[in-house]
Hints:
36% of the residues lie in helices and 13% in strands.
Amino acid sequence: MRRKRVFLTGATGTMGGSALKHLLERGTCDIVTLVRPSEKNKEAMQAVAGEDALEIVWGDLTEYTDVLRCVTGADIVLHPAAFIAPAADHAPETAWKINVGSAEHIVRAIKAQPDPDTVRLLNIGTVAETGDRLPPIHVGRTGDPLKPSIFDMYACSKIAAERIVAESGLKYWASCRQTYIATANLIQDPIMFHQPINTCIELCTEHDAGLLLANACEDDLPEAFWRRFYNIGGGESCRFVYLEYLERNMSLFGIDARKVMERRWFALRNFHCHWFEDSGVLDEYLHYQTESYADHQRHIQAAIPADAGNGAGAISHEDIKKAVMEPLATATPDSTLYWINNNMEMRITAFFKSKEDWAKIPDWDVDMPEDPRGIRPVRLDHGYDEDKPPESLDLSDMQAAAAFRGGSCLTKAMSPGDLFTPLKWKCAFGHEFEATPNLVLRGGHWCPHCAPPGWNYDEEARRNPFFAQVWYPNHDRQESHFYPADCWKDILQR
């Protein structure tokens, strides 16, 4: 019997590397992976280069011929590779070339196969597609509005890539939006302060992220799994609040987080992550939720060198604050206090609302945000009758969904239950476009002409009740800001 052939992208990354390890340990598939021939990547692949079941193709996802070589003969394509933030936010053209270009090449290569209907594609998106979801909208599900945070060029590129996959016409595809993949390495980058302290995060460990991809290569996935969107999360045991995460993880090093960081260093809005109502749906198919937040902490502890000492015992909290943490918050154009000190208006309004609002942020333990576990989450309305079975959805549901988005469905006839034939739509700004009902209703996508980069969210919320649900919980109706497509360049000009 012929062994299944798997094309895996991103084998030198966190999720792809974990998947490669799982697949090689199983030994049930032949694997081909496309790796850019950098010295770093060559060194990373040395440990597995001699594996009989593995073919390493040295090339680039941005080259169609390289992608075609790997897709040819593959039974399933696992695509976790991506150019991610913060690097992607500094080089969006590269992010678009890699993240969007690779999706285009993979879809094109699958369609070039003798029987494309036999090839499965598992695309990995990101929780960043839905942007910040602070309480009371801190529990989300697929079909909720897409809202990449302002300046988040990575999220924008992944939304565009997901749209390509979902509208490809392929028979077998699924797009899974990855949450924060928790590794044993703690984040030490200014981006750590872009996150509000009351952000709800549902992590997925590195082990489970790879397990998900490996399990997608098994033969028992039903037809119902495909042509859908999913949220990847570890489940309830992997949920936490951001400040809690910092405090618990730093405590493993003997550090009191509140003694080495100030509350005013953290943004008030405009990042991403939330808890998932529906991460269990994906687990029912792929059985990947095996580790908890406690396991993540054990991974961190195991990675601490035996001779590392005890953080605050070897170095004072004040020294850690001055030498390590404060520069992350102040010293670079990516730093939150750099924006404040240099009056970078777009960054300030996006992340803090105003400099006055930033100045009102109190010290630790004063008027702290309510614990989200005690807040009843608001479940968002998707604008149509979700109690109907999918096979019964008809034109009236499309019209209702379009109206709730401030627009209209221009198509005059639709076969009930046909979610994969594109319809014609008009958005609240008068743009006309085509999209499948599946993309709109199940994916949360809408007008591609209004989609960032170029953020006109204040005006969009005034015209689009669907979008308003995710905007007004932490924005005033009187706000009126526009962020041009090249707004990201502000930090490069410093």
